[in-house]
Amino acid sequence: AIYRAVGKNPFLNARGNRPTVGQILLMSKEALARRVLSNPRIKIYRCGRSDIRSGQVDRRVLATLEFLAAWGLKPTVTSLKCSHSYYTKSGSVSHHSSGNAVDIAKINNVPILGNQQAGSVTDLTVRRLLTLQGTVRPTQIISLLDMGEPTLAMANHADHIHIGFRPRYGPNAKLGRQARRLLANNQWDKLVARLGSIRNPVVRLKPSKYSIRVKADPHRASDAHAAE
Ligand SMILES: [Zn+2]
Ligand SMILES: [Zn+2]
């Protein structure tokens, strides 16, 4: 439970009423969606706004937009899920299709096109994005700038920065969404945080030294009932 003084909002910082960047990154998807849609520092094309309203955009994408705006890098979003092709140019399923990617064509109203040199808005934005860590770390930051993983320079990204995140549920996306609906926002975020801290068990491919070696019986007529 969150204990707080009456009348005080725990998500506001001590100095005033604007949440800190760290607080923004911890907000629920629904809270982030409301903020992004009403933030005058974030411009989003019309059907992209309905992607957000209908809950189709991942919270990491929403958190990233709020994060940039909070750092004074006001994004113009030209692609979320809606109107983006299902596949990428190379033929794989685009992270846009699952609501896990965003394209930004302008920062502070300055077009990405023609502004990717050192010190440009693109340069500043990509560097800022590289400070996103942990669960909000992008897996793709594509522009003309290569600053090492997870950035990638691609010639067809002269006019936008693509930011993508690994889909959370893989091929069972539908199942994941259903499970999510059963959990309240807070519970879900806590669960995701916990899952992230559990290490996958190591599965041995070779038999362990404690296993007993069984020789095949050369006198058996058939392998059909080997277990009996
Ligand atoms: Zn993209
Ligand atoms: Zn792209």
UniProtKB/TrEMBL annotation:
This is Uncharacterized protein. The lineage of its organism: unclassified sequences, metagenomes, ecological metagenomes.
